[in-house]
Amino acid sequence: MSEQVRVHPQGLCESDDVGAGTRVWAFAHVLPGARVGRDCNICDGAFVEGGAVLGDNVTVKNGTLVFERVTCEDDVFLGPNVLFTNDLRPRAAIKRGGDALLPTTVRRGATLGAGTVVVCGTEIGEHAFAAAGSVVTRSVPAHAFVAGNPARVKGWVCACGERLGDSLVCADCGTAHERSGEGLRVR
User: Fewer Cβ atoms within 10 A, N terminus or C terminus of the chain?
Assistant: First the structure.
């Protein structure tokens, strides 16, 4: 672990693969084997399991649980109490790990609102936004705004986070988008 990593006296960071500028706050726990990029913020009570990967500038708010085989790319925001799963058939008597667990990927710039649950085996597209309390049971397209249980596409968002109207041009920053496959991309 870099000397430039700040770990609160009541925080626990057991990983040797944590980037400079990262902060691990009180009662947060980063297990051995977790990979954490530069300038991440892992808030009070968060848990990052071995085999989880956080890119650069990832925010992991209070009480969030990031388990093995979850990958969050750069600039991802995980709101308070976000919960990832990694096993579709959990049993106390059966210990699964590694390839027996289903991977989940959160692409660059995506946001998962407070209390979002992400079922394993899904991909959250670039700059997608899951509303607070969403239950993500299937993959989310790039720039999609999803909400509900199960989460469904309710609209589209810009990389700046602003909801997009029918024109797909951001009223805040002026970025124009166009449909691309199931999601959006910058025009």
Answer: C
